[in-house]
Amino acid sequence: MHHLKGIPRSDWQTMTAARAMIPAEQMKRVQPHAELWTALEEMDRDGVNQLPVMTDGQIRGMLSREDVVGYLRALAGTRRLAWELAFRGCLCSN
Prior knowledge:
Number of strands: 2
Shape: elongated
CATH topology of the domain at 29-93: CBS-domain
Order of helices and strands: HHEEH
CATH superfamily of the domain at 29-93: CBS-domain
Largest sheet: 2 strands, antiparallel
Helix content: 40-55%
CATH architecture of the domain at 29-93: Roll
Strand order of the largest sheet: 1-2
Structural class: alpha+beta
């Protein structure tokens, strides 16, 4: 979106997708094997909320900040629950 701010208002009604898009070779992107923390750091650094997942110049999918944060929260909750259950198990067996 940042690059669109420089377009004069008089051009808005005739703006095409081709003029508004960022060419694939200029897009911030992530490889399929990238770790989620790395992707999240790249989103922070580049000021974007999503990154295309690409290989060989082909988009394989989109990765959003919301999806990554949701996954990490769920993972943290699962680990916390496992720890609590293990801890309670230790207490109960004594």
